[in-house]
Amino acid sequence: MNRLAQSKSPYLRQHAENPVDWYPWGDEALERARREDRPILLSVGYSACHWCHVMAHESFEDAETAALMNQNFINIKVDREERPDIDEIYQKVVLLMGQGGGWPLTVFLTPDHRPFYGGTYFPPVPSYGRPSFRQLLLALTDLWQNRRADVEGQAEQLLEGIRELSAGGQDGDGALVGPGPLKAAATDLLSRIDPEWGGFGRQPKFPNATCLEVLMLQNRVDGTGSDELLLTLEKMWRGGIYDHLRGGFARYAVDREWLVPHFEKMLYDNALLLGLYADASLRWPEHGYLRRVVRETVTYLEADMRGPAGTFYAATDADSEGVEGKYFCWTPAQLEEVLGSRDDAALFAAVYGVDPRGNFEHGMSILHLAQPLAPTAGALGMTEAALEARLAPLRARLLASRYQRVPPLRDDKILTAWNGLLISGLVRAAAAAEQWGEPELRAHWLALATAAARRLLDAHIGAHGEVMRVDTDGVVHTRGYLEDLAFLARACLDLHEATLDLAWQQAAAVLARYALAHHAVSGGVGFYVTADDAERLIERTESQHDSAIPSGLGPMVEVLLRLDLAGVAPAGARAAAEACLQRQGAAVRQPFAFASLIAAAQFAAPEAAHVTLRGASPEAVAGLARTVAAARPAMRARLAVSFEAAEGPPAALVCRAQVCSTPIGQPDALRAALLGEASR
Prior knowledge:
InterPro entries: 6-hairpin_glycosidase_sf (IPR008928), Ssp411 (IPR024705), Ssp411-like_TRX (IPR004879), Thioredoxin-like_sf (IPR036249). This is Thioredoxin domain-containing protein. By secondary structure, this protein is α+β, with helices and mostly antiparallel strands. Helix content is about 50%, strand content about 10%. It is built from 25 helices and 18 strands. It has a 5-stranded mixed β-sheet with strand order 1-3-2-4-5, sandwiched between helices. The longest helix has 21 residues, at about 415-435.
């Protein structure tokens, strides 16, 4: 048992039994490295990371390897989900060394935290074109002990490279506002779509919901990309990356066809995809699978990922009983055993691709829809509805049986940022349900979002307004980052638009004011990941590039612009947002890195609309609010909505480009004002 046994992080506790003399990141480890003049071995990962588990089993659980680590290094473990600031800095080392980045991240530092070598997974024996981990440990020990000048030179080069990477993209070459940058970004992204299987590139395939959102925005303007978007959304749903029994998406697929996932499920993926599919269900209502994905994803999140306080857990692992995917896969014999009918098992196997040879490891099959249900139903001489009616109870029985299996490990920590993403996704799902004509579903999904947001505001905000990042077993800890502030503020604005409760808008404004005071770059031209009084690392990184989730920058700019449109923004909000958009001119040439900022910029466009609903109470303007919600899916431009308490009859003011309408009290007139110049 090492020091990690006392950690709050589930990931760090996974390594508590290692023979490695692990430290968590902190003063004790860093001071010992300085005192003994020993290099630091920094290992960064997360609980649902498959290759993190592989390296742990092969190397960190091996006594001989651990002895080398303990003798020559101060060994520090970091949970990248708790400390994205540390991870973001040292991921750049791997990029500078010509590798792709990712986890596990393995970086070697001088005692003053400067990196001099890095990589990701290292095998126990030379393979994959990489040295063995033990070879690497011996080589770097020799380098440290006998060629210190080389270490110093490499550390300075990497440090300079980190500075250059951090400055990238800030050429100020034109603002992102207006139709041109959005169209250019969408054109670039469309050129990267796989024309046969959807998604970006070949393999592995990540959903990349943030980039798909940019395509959705351009599609609303001129219809561009409908085929590519629908292809991607359908192929992801039909593929093995989607859980056809419970709902929800795995993190990514290792193949071009979306068949074989890395089976871990991340809260952030499902939060982002939930909103995307919800909006798509209104854009293309004729495609019923879009609604289905929304329903099943929320059901999965509520059933498997919701904690007792109303917030949602971070992730589930890929492995169970030491085997990747075992929990999710099936054989024909298992189907027949559970379903009790050879005919039912054969039907299910035919529809969901369960083959005696298997399509995965150990003869197991990943459930997927090799073709849409309609042609399958036709071949069986039945309607699609009849086929679905027969399949639904079979899925339910298999799911009940699956719950009896040993489940993958669940990472039960609550992350503010990821919950903020999910709250926004739930609000978008609730808005879709209202347009589907299902008010009870809307109310339930909105209640889930509201409960999570109330818990975050009640428990994750410190005495001085600082946001905390993590809740582990009810203990809230770890200073939050810009993404925690930004995603929570945006979630509050989304809840304000959905409920017209002014408390949510006020909460967003308070968070925005804190960001401007404590995260803003000098001159208001950007935002740092960490607050001005947070722990100082070798670099105070600016928030810029999107990764698996949006950076804090794009959503923060969106929050500032939406608050400004509503007339309740903190002082300097609009100027700070516009300065960010002007400074990041190169973003349009790097849409993968800046998709969230490109999307946020549309709230600064002249055609962006803002509706103020004025009345004695939110209930008084409910009818007008429903008109706005019904018109929204057909609008070309971004729309922000706010409530203003006022005496007199309920009315709406529609504003664009600093010009507002007279008060509108009739739903038909309001719809005409919204859709006049803003619809296709």
